[in-house]
Specification:
353 residues, alpha/beta, Four Helix Bundle (Hemerythrin (Met), subunit A), 2 domains, 11 helices, 37% helix, binds 5-S-methyl-1-O-phosphono-5-thio-D-ribulose
């Protein structure tokens, strides 16, 4: 399976997802500006994947800094972090990754600059490797909710391409399959950038999963016909009260799932949970260029000069979420904040199928 992002020969290698599924091409980023541009233009996307890419971008940029001491080194890194942080505002993973890199530096402030540079590379690589393990754990906790013969609806792409590997929303599906269950997936095409039609379909087919692409407008009709057993989606930022920001259209899926008595699960690595924000109303929602809506593959489809609103994400209130599946277990949204409590008994909080 191709990787969304890798550290190869002192460069950040990014699989250009804007060209998928028809072309598999890579961009070798020799500086953080190339990484920032790739994130901004959706060549790499998906919350965990952009966190990893940003960490690698920072590590790459650090190699070119000449500083005589720790404070000078940190000062030079700050604008680089800001550039990476400003690329996409909704997913919390870039902030999470930058904070982790900063913490590492502060802990090792007495080391030489050369050593700090090497530590940053190791940490960025560790973030990638850990993300794969986290997703496997999400898969194990999540697979219990999938029964033999189930059809899972997913929205956008929260698969291997959106992460270090394995995916978040796709992990329970892959584990259920490994457990010998028969699982079908229905992938919303996910307008305007078609992550479902282009990316989820592509990677699930490669993984041997039975996948059917539908237009976003079809989800409700299929649910009403009894053809969807459960929904699993990813998240760009889940907050303390269990509200979930994810790709635009996720809220509609969740409301339709409730109307049709279908469980709605969110696969959320802890790196995508922002415990500092009390409510989803405070999550910044990214607005993207009009052209993503007015054009399809370079062809204009709307009248000249029409007004466009292109919100990349929406917020699903916690009340529509059956459970949040993390690497530590599956929890009711109202309990997610308790993961930060000292001495919390996770076993008491975990929900089972
Ligand atoms: O705009 P995108 O493609 O970055 O949006 C991606 C999503 O909404 C994913 O569902 C989310 O990042 C979770 S990825 C594991």
């Amino acid at each position: 399976m191709v990787k969304a992002v890798e550290w190869i020969d002192d460069r950040v290698r990014i699989l250009d997802q804007s060209k998928l599924p028809h072309e598999v091409t890579f961009i070798d980023c020799t500086d953080h500006l190339l990484v920032a541009d790739a994130i901004k233009t959706l060549k790499i996307r998906g919350a965990p994947a952009i966190g990893i890419a940003a960490a690698m971008g920072l590590a790459r940029a650090a190699q070119d800094i000449s500083a005589s001491g720790f404070d000078e080194f940190m000062k030079a890194l700050e604008p680089i972090m800001d550039t990476l942080l400003m690329t996409r505002p909704t997913a919390v993973n870039i902030k999470w990754a930058m904070e982790r890199m900063k913490k590492l530096l502060l802990k090792n402030r007495d080391e030489s600059i050369d050593r700090l540079k090497a530590l940053l590379i190791d940490e960025a690589k560790a973030i990638l490797e850990e993300d794969i393990e986290v997703n496997k754990a999400i898969g194990i906790w999540g697979a219990q909710f999938i029964r033999d013969g189930d059809t899972v609806l997913t929205h956008c792409n929260a698969g291997a391409l959106a992460t270090g590997g394995y995916g978040t929303a796709t992990a329970p599906i892959l584990v259920a399959k490994e457990q010998g269950k028969s699982v079908r997936v229905v992938a919303d095409e996910t307008r305007p950038v078609l992550q479902g039609a282009r990316l989820t379909a592509w990677e699930l087919m490669q993984a041997g999963v039975d996948v059917t692409v539908i237009t976003d407008n079809s989800a409700g009709a299929l649910m009403r016909k009894g053809e969807i057993d459960l929904c699993i989606v990813g998240t760009d930022r889940t907050v303390r009260n269990g509200d979930v920001a994810n790709k635009i259209g996720t809220y509609m899926v969740a409301v339709l799932a409730r109307e049709n008595d279908i469980p709605f699960y969110v696969a959320a690595p802890l790196s995508s949970i922002d415990f500092s924000i009390p409510s989803g109303d405070m999550i910044p929602i990214e607005l993207r260029p009009d052209e993503e809506v007015t054009h399809i593959r370079g062809q204009q489809i709307t009248p000249d000069g029409v007004k466009v609103l292109n919100m990349a994400f929406d917020v699903t209130p916690a009340k529509y979420v059956t459970a949040i599946i993390t690497e530590k277990g599956a929890f009711r949204p109202k309990d997610i904040k308790k993961l930060t409590y000292r001495g919390v008994n996770l076993e008491e909080l975990r929900i089972k199928a």
